[in-house]
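To: structure subgroup
Subject: Chain for Friday's discussion

All,

I'm putting the inputs and outputs inline so they're searchable in the archive.
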Amino acid sequence: MSRVTTGRRRMSAAQRREQILDVTRSIVLDEGFHEVTPGRIAAGAGVDRSLVYQQFGDLAGLFVALIDREITIAGEGFAAAVAAAADQPERPTFDTVFDGVLAAIDENPSAWRLFLSPPQGAPPELHARLAESTKLVRGFLQDELERLNPDLEDPELTALALHAAGSELLHQHVVNPTAVTADRLRAFIPAATARRSGR
């Protein structure tokens, strides 16, 4: 992990908080939650360890703050993708949403990687947020399937299959973006979703 340098520029409390979260995220994604210590965070951010405790209380509080920040980033990306689909009714909804999610991932890959490829030693809060987001996305997929094809035999299982396949494709894009490129996925998704949704 590269050390975050700050020079002599004085940061606001909010900026320092974001910097500490960035350093923590870097350690987590490179090595796992279990490798995070106050000393490593302080060294990476160029601050005293006491500041880490002042900002977050303890490591558990730091992890929750990191998870909440990253899930907010990912959630805003998904919401923007859904909104884009509503603004483009002439285009298949799933294609537009998937394209929007890809764009969100490429804009903030570290945030999405935390959830698409959970690091070792992840705290319960991460798994809880994953369960909540999974339920939300599957619900959206099922609602859209029922709207697009009211005669679809089992929209619940179809939504589950779409979510599982989409999550795995996005996971592969996050961990191996040079092989599973955004352009490759954009070429693949329209035909795949058409088969799954019965279009």
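Points worth raising on Friday:
Residues 78 and 101 are 6 Å apart (CA to CA).
The chain has a mean pLDDT of 90.

D.
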